[in-house]
Amino acid sequence: MKTQNEIQQHIQLIEHYTQALAILGYDAKTGAPHNSKGQTAKIIGTLSKKLYELQTDSSFGKSIEHLLDKELNEFEKKQYEVQYKTYKRLTSIPSEVYNQLSYLKAKTSAQWGIAKRDNNFNLVKDDLIELININKKVGSLVDDHMSPYDQLLDQFEPNIHTNTIDRLFGNVKNEILPFLHQLKGRNTEHDFSFLKKPFPLEKQRKLATELLKAIDYNFDAGQLRDTLHPFSAGVHPDDARVAIKYVENDVKVAALMTLHEGGHCIYTQNVNKDLVDTGLGRYTSMGLHESQSIFWEKIIGKHKGFWKNHYYLLQNLEPEIYQNISAEQFHLGLHEVKPSLIRYEADDITYPLHIIIRYEIEKALFTDQINVSDLPEIWNDKYESYLGIRPTSDTEGILQDIHWYSGSFGYFPSYLLGFIYAAQLRDAIIHDLPNFDQLIEENRLVTIRKWLTEHIHQYGKLKTSNEILNSLNISGINEQPLLKHLKEKYREIYKLQEVI
Amino acid sequence: MKTQNEIQQHIQLIEHYTQALAILGYDAKTGAPHNSKGQTAKIIGTLSKKLYELQTDSSFGKSIEHLLDKELNEFEKKQYEVQYKTYKRLTSIPSEVYNQLSYLKAKTSAQWGIAKRDNNFNLVKDDLIELININKKVGSLVDDHMSPYDQLLDQFEPNIHTNTIDRLFGNVKNEILPFLHQLKGRNTEHDFSFLKKPFPLEKQRKLATELLKAIDYNFDAGQLRDTLHPFSAGVHPDDARVAIKYVENDVKVAALMTLHEGGHCIYTQNVNKDLVDTGLGRYTSMGLHESQSIFWEKIIGKHKGFWKNHYYLLQNLEPEIYQNISAEQFHLGLHEVKPSLIRYEADDITYPLHIIIRYEIEKALFTDQINVSDLPEIWNDKYESYLGIRPTSDTEGILQDIHWYSGSFGYFPSYLLGFIYAAQLRDAIIHDLPNFDQLIEENRLVTIRKWLTEHIHQYGKLKTSNEILNSLNISGINEQPLLKHLKEKYREIYKLQEVI
């Protein structure tokens, strides 16, 4: 048995390895030498193995199991619960299965790169089947009370399972589909071609830097670099880094992705520093993490008032394009609704449908209702049915995202759960700060950031998503605020009559 | 006892931790968030401790000790000798002494920053005394046959100890001092003020990139970033990174430092990849490492033929300054001899004196001939005596370099040993490639790089410095080629009669 002091030291080790891996991962994806990939995978493999050994250490696990039955203060209880959940999950998987899972994740994600490049799903199909099967097996081992897919979901958003998501996403789909139909064609009245004009990468980098400053991202505890797929690395509150991809003829993507990844980092940066190395100093769930990125991207970053204050950045950086475009036109351009094949670039209205398609397919895969070999067809059919457009290649279709091929099943729903949470949080802020719109128009975003810190960020894992909602007098996750927000906003923008 | 297979796996772990620490170190010094310093030190501390545990693992150490008595092939023998030397050194230090040493290194180097900022040696004096005392103690524990200072030297340049260095450095001093006296004033005939004109940092970065390409540095296995003090991180052959400091009104520093750090990395990049993770896939000694950086900085990077081919870079980047300056004038500017207080920026002739001053002081400290409290005075006296200029502040004097304050005693001599080796290697190349000057003039540097790879780089630690010299029919380290090279070159440049 370990003493409580030894347990704290053990948790600290777990945290240091987790943090080291986060830095190495950020480094590997932001300019590390091209040829170093293979060796870096080995280095990361060695540290990951050590992390696994720490997390599954039996004297550690048994000691916290023992202590969880005792009188503990709330802080220790939270700490041990978090560690014990990981311990239980990992130790219920035999190490040969765990190693096979790690191997298949690495193999399939590498093979996905080849299949995507060659636009041929068949090149990765067999690997994907194996990866899904081993995930089902892992699911059956971990917990008898939850279906394998619910267990996967539970890793990313604890306690939000298929029954809840079916309801939330079903309601979203039922309202968004007819709304999208009403909107269709409305925005062809506008010419948004200015958004597609070349915007030099160096200037986009400057824009990204200024936008991050605008939303109170702290560069003393952060960094901005180039990468191939935008992401953020929330190492700890003093180290939360953004990585952005810039596309020369699409400045909108970089601008919104910067606010998105910046939002993730603002969460990390404002966790109470006393929680560092306690195992609680990190986001409480993937859905809530995503709520923070979507809040800054879609709630603030698409607010007219925000661009009233920051549109000058584009005009100064690229006057040739933007001198004759008004802030209002630009703002309208951010709200163009246009079904597209790529999740990543989707507008607010079609975005939920991209996620729902992926959720429906994942769920069907894990309940044996569909076969992997039919995936390209199923994917394309759903795009045609929900969005009215059909992918013509595997690359744009079933091979679009790396998630499944890297073994991240159950992750996709977080994106829409985050959007749903973001709208609920927006309502809660407006309740406390009724001058919300005015704050944005007066560029007093720090007030809003501080509200988020006070009610969410600071707690790290000390409060669950649901405890945070409850503390705001919200009785649970609910899709209605999102639907209301989207419909009101887009009705106004597109001057629609009551369409729904 | 571990099997040979287990030993190989153990060495691989040691290597992976070493490599991870190199990447984390590079990251920490090249743009990691400012506020992350404290937590990064903890993360690095945790991984360093694990590395120490691996290196001092008793079953590992005893197993290789046992095997070293057996019949081994040459490769295994080298492998085990390298590991055993580290094992013996580390295990002869009691862990409480080792921990105290690590603590004092961290404490004193942090305190050095404060003392340097405040220009006050007294602020760090007591810490330095403690650090020197513990290093003496460590020295007395490790090996009875070597004096504490020789043991420190041996860590950086195995088998080159005080007796050899006294001879080498003594001869250099005896010849350089009168030569410097002859040169004095000769270069005041020229106006080199163009070198001090502002050269925008962004353009210096481009210059650095092009210079690295010019010397066959492989960017697919490398990276170039900004930092506060130039350094390189040779993680493994596929990952050897350069970090440069740019000074706006001194483009010469960035140009030469880029060639210097690039030279270190070219060594790392060309180690045989089969040696990665064997414990032998790295530079064989600090002196030989330094010979490679100095070769590219001072032998190639100050060669007239090199600038014949690359001077256009400066003219293109900053035509306003350089359009009316000839390549010859610029080349002459790189050879301005002018005693200065800063080692780092010193010319070829005074550079050895900067190192000799540090060596003489170190040696005296470790043989109890001087007191730490007298260091500022001793330092300043030596500068006045050897270079004719006297520091007027601690910052420019005794607090100039971090080395001693971070516990790196015995390191400084490597800089001059490297210069000595570089000149010996130059002779060996000229023996094999008598058209050496022509190769440089025709921009066929790859031929020279390949010679270095064939005779030095590829072997990693498979050959010692001395074995490499022997393979080139050089009977050992010798300062005469350096003195001959410098005198011939500077006599010609400054059109001196036979002055010595």
Please describe the structure with a list of short key phrases separated by commas or semicolons.
homodimer, mainly alpha, 3-stranded mixed beta sheet
Quickly give the structural class of chain A.
mainly alpha
Strand content of chain A: under 5%
- Most extensive interface: A-B, 38 and 38 residues
Write out the strand line-up for the largest beta sheet of chain A, numbering strands in chain order. 1-3-2
- Gross morphology of chain A is globular
Q: What is the straight-line distance between the termini of chain A? A: 62 Å
Oligomer: homodimer
User: What helical percentage do the residues of chain A reach?
Assistant: 55-70%
- Summarize model confidence as the mean pLDDT of chain A: 95
Number of strands of chain A: 3
Mind summarizing the main beta sheet of chain A?
3 strands, mixed
DSSP helical segment count of chain A: 21
Write down the secondary-structure element order of chain A.
Answer: HHHHHHHHHEEEHHHHHHHHHHHH
Low-confidence stretches of chain A: none
Over all CA atoms, what is the radius of gyration of chain A? 23 Å
Describe the protein's architecture and organization.
2 copies of one chain form a homodimer. Chain A has 21 helices and 3 strands. By secondary structure, chain A is mainly alpha-helical. In chain A, strands 1-3-2 form a 3-stranded mixed sheet, with helices on both faces. In chain A, a hairpin with a 2-residue loop joins strand 2 (231-236) and strand 3. In chain A, helix 11 (286-300) crosses helix 17 (413-432) and helix 15 crosses helix 17. Chain A is globular and about 70 Å long. Chains A and B meet through helix 1, helix 2, strand 1 and strand 3 of A and helix 1, helix 2, strand 1 and strand 3 of B.
